[in-house]
Amino acid sequence: MGELPVSGRDTVHVWVSAAPGGRPAVARRLLRRAGCTLLGRAEREVGVGRRPDGRPWVRAGAVSLPVSVSHAEGVVVVAARRAGPIGVDVERRRPLPALALAHRWYAPPEAAWLGDLPDAARVEAFLLLWTAKEAVGKALGRGLRAGGLRRLMPVPEHPRELLRPLPDRAGVQVGHPGCGAGLVLAVAVDGYPGAGPEPAAHGEVEVSVRLE
Question: For the purposes of burial, counting CB atoms within 10 Å of the CB of 152, is it exposed (0-12), middle (13-18) or buried (19 or more)?
Fold first, then answer.
């Protein structure tokens, strides 16, 4: 399967849409929208589907588009880029026993970081780390298997929309663009066009979010 020619700055495109009771149909619509936008093809020429492992695919003719899908209660998110693996994850903000869950699932440095935060900030911080881990797992093509929950993420900072390299894997970057009230969103990329072995500098990968 061919890839798109890439030039200039790498951009991750994200579509966010309400999905009251119709997640599969909304996901297909957004995936087709991504294909039309980034492949420059008419809607009838863009095919979408799922691989045997559940990951989505988008293609037009012999050209494929890297994409990722996530959903939370009442919302679907699709992310795409012109070349290279992409991952996206979204969660709704909600009450959680954040510190207890972090001690159970996260690496000790991350649990300690959460423990140093004020109580009111812990749920948000827990979800920032959780969505980052999910998005990175999708970008790497293996989800949270093989210790993915304990894979160290960069500590979320402001501005959060900037993609930052993982502490132990600089070629993988993750960030948290805003996508509407009540939602926490993470996008991750593995490598970037023209990078070779060197990681991108902060801000090298742009993120464009569209609210449907």
Answer: middle
Rg for the chain, CA atoms, rounded: 17
- Cβ contacts of 69 within 8 Å, gap of 6 or more: 27, 30, 31, 56, 76, 77, 78, 79, 88
pTM: 0.89
Spatial CA neighbour of 114 closest among 131, 97, 92? 97
pLDDT band at 199 (very low <50, low <70, confident <90, very high): very low
Q: What is the arithmetic mean of pLDDT over 139-162?
A: 88
Average per-residue pLDDT in the chain?
A: 88
For the cut 70, the answer to whether the pLDDT of residue 158 exceeds it is: yes
Spell out the alpha helix ranges (H) of 40-73. Answer: none
* Triad 151, 156, 159: Cα angle to 5°: 145
At 168, list the tokens: 């132990």
